[in-house]
């Protein structure tokens, strides 16, 4: 490994450790403030609905890469607890819409309160210019990751292992 590569590796390790430490703290904070007993799949489903207002079972299945039947089971459990509500699409009666119900709306209201708390408690201690710079760097890295794509990454890993 070249000298610059070693330095980059060390710096990225330090960045990853700092991010992991912050994420661990924020997760603990979140767990103490939200008592909902939701599985990771249920949270992903609720988040998808929240970001898109009203979605179909098929859209959820496609997004989560699971079967419509599996989505139906997840939705049924969430519907029992009033996190989501189903309705029939009046224009296509074979299509089911899913949107947030009362518990789901309350869940995201609490999420917003936690987000506001984290921003006011931690991010507000940074200069505005630092927050702008952080945002730009993270977005740039995200674009690089998205551009590369997962298939290229998997192929690269297999190449390094001598499997391809």
From TrEMBL:
Transmembrane segments: none
SMART domains recorded: HTH_MARR
Keywords tagged on the record: DNA-binding, Transcription, Transcription regulation
Pfam name, any one: MarR_2
Keyword Transcription regulation: yes
HTH marR-type domain span: 5-143
Designated name of the protein: MarR family transcriptional regulator
Phylogenetic lineage: Bacteria, Bacillati, Bacillota, Bacilli, Bacillales
